[in-house]
Sequence to fold (315 residues):
Amino acid sequence: VGSTNGEQFDQQLKTIINKQKNSDKENLPIISGDIKEPETQELSILIRLDTDRTDMKKRAINTDVIQERFGAGLCQAFGIPSTCIRVDSIDSDEAIINMCIRPPYGKNVVDSLNGTAPDAAVRMQAVRKCCCDFNANVESITLGEFGLKIEDRLMDPRWNKKYAWPNDNPNEGQYWSNPIDQGGKPYYCPSGWIRFGVKVAKDDKEFDANWGNWYVAYHGTRGENASKILTSGLRVSTAGCFYGDGISRAYVSPSIEYCGHPRYAFPWKQTTKNGEVRWYQLVFQCRVNPASVNKIDSETLISDEYKQTVTIDPN
Fold:
């Protein structure tokens, strides 16, 4: 896939995604976050709709209508009692509905959407029909919470994505085999990672106008640094490799595998109520102004004696 600007990049990527969706119309694009104990705790569910925003604004005025019609329809689709879904908020600008599934029925929803329930295909069809009856198509469904404590105002769920491996089922996430030309540099699929969108532009046109021709790069860091970086940007250093002391610089890499090294993306864990330990890492996906790139050099992790034999990233 090749593109000369961000708009072409988005369009070509959407074409790939649509091919994946069309390969199995029975399934829905599902992004799984931190799903704790859906049988004993409320399950957060975020539904992004492809619908007319004017209609969404009209509906958002009366949340009770959505609770009664859309929520009840989803309950029927999932085969759970009609009072077990609560509408928490409606983002009419982004066509996003935030809901909660009351316990113990969260597990029914997870199993239906992840395809582990015996009647999962039928349930997914019912969910699609419910949304169509609401005059909307499902763009994506996000289950659970993000593993970081970040203010909601900083996040934009429209751009949440799950990236698959080459041999994964196409419905398990997005994948492209050939690098995408982004600003003249290759952008490889970050397989195995889940992206949580950050609020930087009101829509894709504004994003393209500002950063459409910039490079894609990554920056690994500790989880506790997330909110600081989102509110104030990367901290500029005046010491480090490749430049003399006193010269301002920030380090990024086109390789998510490199930035995912524990030296940078330091792992942290969370323990569920039943004692299950889950590990997380954080890597920021950035856009880099080509004019600000003053030096491109090799990695700094591998000793010189191993540089010719050790490969960090096959790409």
